[in-house]
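A.,

Following up on our hallway conversation. Structure tokens first:
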């Protein structure tokens, strides 16, 4: 599985609960469903 890099602070994000990824440094939370690409789709909408 690819590492997720926070789009804001560029640090690696940690996998959290309920298929989310969290960035401790800037507080971004992205939801992950099925493919890594869908995260960025959701984030950029």
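Then the amino acids I'd put at each of the 45 positions:
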């Amino acid at each position: 599985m690819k590492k997720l890099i926070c789009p804001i602070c560029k640090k690696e994000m940690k996998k959290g609960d309920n298929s989310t990824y969290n960035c401790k440094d800037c507080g971004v939370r992205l939801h992950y469903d099925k493919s890594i690409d869908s995260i960025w789709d959701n984030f950029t909408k």
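Residues 1-45 form one domain. Curious whether your intuition agrees with the design.

B.
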